[in-house]
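BUG: 3D viewer hangs when loading the predicted structure for this chain

Environment: internal workstation, default settings.
Expected: structure renders.
Actual: progress bar stalls at 90%.

Input used:
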Amino acid sequence: MPQALHTLILYARDMRATAEFYCAHFGFMSSLAVVEGLIELEPTGGGTHLLIHQAAKSVKLGQVGVKLMFDVQDIEGFRQKAAAQGLAFGPTHQANGYAFANAKDPDGNPVAISSRAFRQ
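Structure tokens produced before the viewer hung:
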């Protein structure tokens, strides 16, 4: 039986700042309470949950081992809204029938918005 990806753990230097970033810019909901050493973020439109975990001083953040990609139908509209809230994306790239743009979270982890899921 296939298993669905339900939860990702992100390590953060400032757990609250990272949780607030994903809530403000990507529509997650959270009480921001630290429970069992984690802040849980729930997606409002369905999808994968995020758990924010305190990074040890030895953890190197901002490496490109993982990039979170969010499905966004209107890339330019999302970029404008994000910019008004203080999140600057890099240039919009055109790919095979879709567009995408990249940014970084407060810990330097790469995030992207992509219209790939909506291509026809």
